[in-house]
Amino acid sequence: MQENSRAARFDNSRVKKKFFQPKEYVMRKAEISQPISVGKFSPKWEGPYKVCKKVASGAYKLETLDGKEIPQSWNISNLRKFYH
Question: Which of 47, 55, 46, 45 lies closest to 22 in space, CA to CA?
């Protein structure tokens, strides 16, 4: 058991923590917002969106570039940073 915890500790030490600041630009997974698959070559990410605020641990409220707030919060696992 000790060997497994040692390996897990080593693996977990290499994981980068991901977080976003308000007013940062992010992309969101298209398959989460539109669960009906359009096809093999449909875009996997959509956006960019701007982060409004952090709602909970790992959950964020987004808004469009026009300033309209998206009604639901998004988990950090479904977001990625947008580089422009």
Answer: 55
